[in-house]
Amino acid sequence: YRYQERKENDREAYWNTDEPVNKTERKEHKFTDKYILQVPGDWNSQAEKFLYYEGIVWYKKSFDFTRTSAANKVYLYFGAVNYEADVYLNGKKLGKHKGGFTPFNFEVPDSVLKATGNYLVVKVDNTRHKDEVPTVNTDWWNYGGITRDVQLIEVPQAFIQDYSLHIKKGASLKTSKNIPVEGWVQLNGGQSSKEVIVEVPELKIKKAFPVTGDKVAIQFNLPAVQLWSPQTPRLYTVVISTNTDRIEDKIGFRTIEVVGKQILLNGNPLFMRGICIHEEIPRQIRRAYNKQDALQLLGLAKELSCNMVRLAHYPHNENMARTADSLGILVWSEIPVYWTIDFNSTEVFEKARTQLAEMITRDHNRASIIIWSVGNETPVKPVRTNFMRNLISAARSLDSSRLVSAALEVNYQPGVNKIDDPLGEYVDIVSFNEYLGWYAGLPDRCRTAKWEFAYNKPFFISETGAETLYGFHGDSLTRWSEEYQEWFYREQVAMLKRMPDNFAGLSPWILCDFRSPRRNNQTFQEGWNNKGLIDQQGRKKKAFAVLKAYYDEKSSTPNP
Ligand code: ADA
């Protein structure tokens, strides 16, 4: 069915290019017509003719809005727009934002907002450029549009902008009593309040902290607490208030650190039974954005007996981390510094750093997130190492309570696979992508594989995988058959069982098949990367059971 469904001209335009999205296609469609597009949502999946479209779309929406108090401020918040957004309200430009996967907001001037008949216009452009992050080439679909929620947010003149609470670094967790918590509350126009009150009602905590500036330091002890972990994803309501504002959130308390060659979660050694996920949903085949999507994707990860997911290769929508918080799934969250970007450019660095800051600012209270990743498979050379090193420092200074990593590559040498990327010195966990038995040789290469690690740190296999068409059967030597992928996973698992004790886990590539403009092998791929354990229709391939059996075995050992 795969090959008949598509139209011949789409195929031709598609196969004859190595560009991420076909340029001819873009010229052919002038799109002067009007369409109704759902927001949030990508445009590509909303009409067949938009599937390959890369370029500009103008959105327009009318709305009425009545403030609850004339003195309140109003912000217009976008969960994400891929990639560039120019925002106008009632003909006045509110601002511009670049970066396809992170939130941004603009204050709406009083003079602009009306009670009735407002019109919001957003010019969205998802054209890829060499000097953007990500750059032109990626192995995922460049879904365009206002892909996440848009909200009008009304706040008092002096409001609580943000907060951070986490268990103090190095705190002893020997008893569950008197665990020190520290953090801050960021006020916007804070001087009108004398104090900030922090409450955790379920723990009978209510503390007041004097306001001395916009950022108020917080410190208190937890009397008795159930720590957050995959086994006990306990969340507590936190209430923060001033005399003008009040916010409520649900957070978990846990620690994550590297001690010697181990990752410790709440002081206990952690083995990550992970899987990579793209922000794309099977069956409906579109960008994932809502809570149901998050439940579906993370639910499948749970079925695979995972305790961790790597959200590749860009910050996913906020529902993912929120749902992971409540399901008890650890999260690796990444910015789209992918393959080769212009590592010489300070502007490109600034774009990457901004996306890192926006990702961390949004999610720094999510207990599920334990790793910030600053990129994927960036080629080893000095200028790139400096660039990445600076991103690692930026991540640490934005959030010192989590671990920092990046997916590196293997240095394949005759007879030995070396993990010696110079970046290994700077990350907390040395993570790498390996495809022994897919991109070179057969899976039985794993039997004789020798590994050499240049760093005495925990290491993590951030990708491994093989392509398979669901329902295509052959013997295990037949590439693209389910049997080949099954064999691949068997050999990988046997190899993993021989890894040294600083092996901290893996996140194979990938949970579900996903669209990719690079996958041009007409017979086998048709615009899909088929390394999923689940196909585009949501059907499990044979290898799913192999990985699940390994994870079940790992989770029943004393140190899961
Ligand atoms: C790389 C890359 C992934 C994925 C994979 C593949 O490792 O990190 O994005 O595309 O290759 O399938 O080849």
Account of the 3D structure:
- The chain has 560 residues and is of the alpha/beta class.
- It folds into 3 domains: 8-155, Sandwich (Jelly Rolls); 159-244, Immunoglobulin-like (Sandwich); 258-555, TIM Barrel, CATH 3.20.20.
- 19% of the residues lie in helices and 30% in strands.
- It is built from 9 helices and 32 strands.
- It has an 8-stranded parallel β-barrel with strand order 18-21-22-23-24-27-29-30, surrounded by 5 helices. Strands 1-6-3-4 form a 4-stranded antiparallel sheet, with no helix packed on it. A 4-stranded antiparallel sheet has the order 11-10-13-14, with no helix packed on it.
- The longest helix has 18 residues, at 346-363.
- The protein is globular, with a radius of gyration of 24 Å.
- The chain binds alpha-D-galactopyranuronic acid.
- Alpha-D-galactopyranuronic acid (ADA) binds at residues 139, 313, 376-377, 433, 463, 509, 529, 531.
* Ligand types: alpha-D-galactopyranuronic acid
Count of extended strands: 32
Uncertain residue segments: 1-28
Indicate the mean pLDDT: 92
| Sequence of strands across the biggest β-sheet | 18-21-22-23-24-27-29-30
Distance between the termini: 42 Å
The number of distinct helices, counting runs of at least 4 residues, comes to 9
Fourth CATH level, the homologous superfamily of the largest domain: Glycosidases
CATH fold title of the largest domain: TIM Barrel
Looking at the overall shape, the CATH architecture of the largest domain is Alpha-Beta Barrel
Q: Structural class, from secondary structure content? A: alpha/beta
**Given the C-alpha coordinates, what overall shape results?**
globular
Q: What does the radius of gyration come to?
A: 24 Å
Just give the CATH class of the largest domain: Alpha Beta
Strand content of the residues, in percent? Answer: 25-35%
Helix content percent band: 10-25%
Main beta-sheet annotation: 8 strands, parallel, barrel
